[in-house]
């Protein structure tokens, strides 16, 4: 796949958090960085002269920009750390050492210790994290130890040694920081109940622990122990502000390839995340052109084989969003919940962002291809018999039944065609009746197009639900156009699409391009109609005020407003100034009228 030029790559970057990677013309990784807003951060490299010569040299070498989208800044920080340690890019300095982020370890022991560590040892112990700050770890451990006293010694507390009386309680027990498991003063079962509660806290599920904290705080307050109550309150606030662990890294997910796919009418986009020791070390998205309307399963199977061969992956297990047939030597898992499910969802998000970028790039470089793809997508999504190259959308506007008007906006090839927009004054309907108004304007619009032998649209959209749609359908029936033009209604509340004769609405994906075009049509019709309605209402109000003056007609009103521009200036004008425009007789009438009001 040909690499787009840098300007195009920059224009189509997403605005969310993530990690960016710079590559040179040989495909060598130069630099890895993190960003809260990928588009702003990466663009900043190319929009200014840097004081650092090393940075200027880096920018000159960049040919390709890749990125991985994540959920938060914390995730971006952790992923940046993993990638730098794995690839050691030439221009990264900060994170090349062996120091890694801290974890909380629950040791695999009869009476487990809980402590911070930067080393993961495969001895059956549990590791939670990583955390972006050791301060966070110590805060969390302080909270845990304040609620659940734990041992800190490294003795072998086997049942036999405890029963033989080998150990004695230490100062930590007398200070209340330990419950004395070394002298069998707490049972292993009770101790493990506390460990279960600690697991919930470090996983972010601390509802029960918070309840116990709040109970203790109330007890201290009732006993007038306000300093103790305040200390617990501060811990509660810290605990409530603590965020659960990152989905980017999980040590229980080891040596796994994660795949997902997003597809449209012409292409499939297969994303690949490679995990090693629970950390993402590679992300790549492959674009596959459909030849014979292949299914997502077929495309994903092709993509998995191609990507694994390209990167020489030997991972024994594959995570996928649905079952795929890769032969017996591969273990394919379809995760249903937890971190495994979230990592597949993260892969899907990256596939979607890649697809969006390709669309944006195509729209800039090859607009015809973009339009053709969009029209094919809309035809499929809206269950139409032809591509909707010409769409018209209607909207009614009135406030409490006054000055009812309607608007028709026209889109051709997915873009507004403003020269074809039309305004309608409602002529045959009395009072606020949206249904009858819709029927009138649809009938008038297409009767005129038929009389003038103008081309008809492939799709009509009416702003409203079943009622407005039925009115539009009746107008087409009267003109003999039913079945010749597709017509749908869009309801504002849930963006439901209604079809004639079908009581069940169609719901499109909120992020689909088809829905975005329909929403743009609806919003444009609403804007155009509201503007027309406001102008008409304003003109009516102005005309009414001057025309109520006895002896003043429409022609005189027009002359006055042409000269003075507003009614307020007419009110303030002298009799002489008015006489110069409309003559002394009418000037005296208007001047005396406003003098009496004052």
From TrEMBL:
Q: What is this protein called?
A: UvrABC system protein C
What Pfam families does this protein map onto? GIY-YIG, HHH_5, UvrC_RNaseH, UvrC_RNaseH_dom
Keyword DNA damage carried by entry: yes
Cross-referenced HAMAP family: UvrC
Domain spans labelled GIY-YIG = 15-93
Gene Ontology molecular functions: DNA binding; excinuclease ABC activity
A GO BP entry: nucleotide-excision repair
Species this chain originates from: Leeuwenhoekiella aequorea
The terms describing its cellular component in GO are: cytoplasm; excinuclease repair complex
- Tell me, what does this protein do in biology? The UvrABC repair system catalyzes the recognition and processing of DNA lesions. UvrC both incises the 5' and 3' sides of the lesion. The N-terminal half is responsible for the 3' incision and the C-terminal half is responsible for the 5' incision.
- Which domain of life, per UniProt? Bacteria
Which UniProt keywords are given for this protein, alphabetically ordered?
Cytoplasm, DNA damage, DNA excision, DNA repair, Excision nuclease, SOS response
Q: Name the InterPro entries for this protein.
A: GIY-YIG_endonuc, GIY-YIG_endonuc_sf, GIY-YIG_UvrC_Cho, RuvA_2-like, UVR_dom_sf, UvrABC_protein_C, UvrC, UvrC_RNase_H_dom
Does the UniProt entry include the keyword Ribonucleoprotein?
A: no
Q: Describe its assembly.
A: Interacts with UvrB in an incision complex.
Gene3D superfamilies to which the protein is assigned, alphabetical: 5' to 3' exonuclease, C-terminal subdomain, GIY-YIG endonuclease, UvrC, RNAse H endonuclease domain
Family designation: Belongs to the UvrC family.
């Amino acid at each position: 796949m040909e690499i787009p030029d840098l300007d195009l790559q920059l224009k189509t970057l997403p605005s969310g958090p993530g990690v960016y990677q710079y590559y040179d013309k040989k495909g060598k990784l130069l630099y890895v960085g993190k960003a809260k807003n990928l588009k702003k951060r990466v663009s900043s490299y190319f929009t200014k002269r840097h004081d650092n010569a090393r940075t200027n040299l880096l920018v000159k070498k960049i040919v390709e920009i890749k990125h991985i989208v994540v959920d938060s800044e914390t995730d971006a920080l952790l992923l940046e750390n993993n990638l730098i340690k794995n690839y050691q890019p030439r221009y990264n300095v900060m994170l090349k050492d062996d120091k890694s982020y801290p974890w909380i370890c629950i040791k695999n022991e009869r009476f487990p210790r809980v402590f911070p560590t930067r080393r993961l040892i495969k001895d059956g112990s549990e590791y939670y994290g990583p955390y972006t700050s050791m301060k966070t770890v110590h805060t969390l451990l302080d909270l845990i130890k304040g609620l659940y006293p734990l041992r800190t010694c490294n003795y072998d507390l086997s049942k036999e040694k405890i029963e033989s009386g080998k150990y004695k309680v230490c100062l930590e027990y007398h200070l209340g920081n330990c419950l004395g498991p070394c002298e069998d003063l707490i049972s292993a079962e009770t101790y493990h109940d506390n460990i279960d509660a600690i697991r919930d806290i470090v996983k972010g599920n601390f509802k029960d622990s918070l309840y116990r904290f709040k109970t203790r705080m109330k007890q201290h307050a009732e006993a007038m122990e306000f300093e103790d109550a305040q200390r617990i309150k501060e811990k509660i606030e810290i605990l409530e502000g603590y965020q659960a662990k990152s989905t980017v890294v999980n040590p229980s997910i080891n040596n796994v390839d994660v795949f997902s796919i997003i597809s449209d009418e012409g292409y499939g986009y297969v994303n690949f995340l490679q995990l090693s020791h629970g950390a993402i070390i590679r992300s790549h998205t492959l674009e596959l052109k459909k030849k014979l309307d292949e299914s997502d399963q077929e495309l994903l199977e092709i993509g998995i084989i191609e990507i694994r061969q390209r990167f020489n992956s030997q991972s024994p297990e594959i995570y996928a969003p649905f079952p795929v047939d890769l032969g017996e030597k591969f273990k394919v898992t379809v995760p249903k919940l937890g971190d495994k499910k979230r990592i597949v969802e993260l892969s899907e998000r990256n596939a979607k962002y890649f697809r969006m970028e390709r669309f944006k790039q195509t729209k800039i470089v090859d607009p015809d291809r973009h339009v053709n793809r969009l029209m094919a997508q809309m035809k499929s999504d809206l269950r139409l018999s032809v591509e909707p190259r010409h769409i018209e959308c209607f909207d009614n506007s009135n406030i409490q039944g006054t000055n009812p008007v309607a608007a028709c906006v026209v889109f051709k090839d997915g873009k507004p065609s403003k020269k074809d927009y039309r305004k309608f004054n409602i002529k045959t309907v009395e009072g606020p009746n949206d249904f009858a108004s819709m029927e009138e304007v649809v009938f008038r619009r297409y009767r005129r197009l038929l009389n003038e032998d103008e081309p008809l649209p492939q799709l009509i959209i009416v702003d409203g639900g079943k009622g407005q749609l039925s009115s539009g359908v009746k107008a087409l029936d009267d003109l003999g156009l039913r079945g010749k033009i597709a017509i749908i209604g869009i309801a504002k509340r849930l963006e439901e699409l209604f079809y004639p004769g079908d009581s069940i609405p169609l719901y499109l994906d909120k992020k689909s391009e088809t829905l975005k075009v329909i929403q743009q049509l609806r919003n444009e019709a609403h804007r155009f109609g509201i503007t027309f309605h406001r102008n008409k209402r304003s003109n009516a109000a102005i005309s009414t005020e001057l025309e109520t003056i006895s002896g003043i007609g429409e022609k005189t009103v027009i002359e006055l407003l042409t000269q003075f521009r507003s009614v307020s200036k007419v009110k303030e004008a002298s009799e002489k100034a008015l006489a110069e425009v409309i003559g002394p007789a009418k000037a005296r009438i208007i001047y005396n009228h406003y003098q009496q009001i004052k």
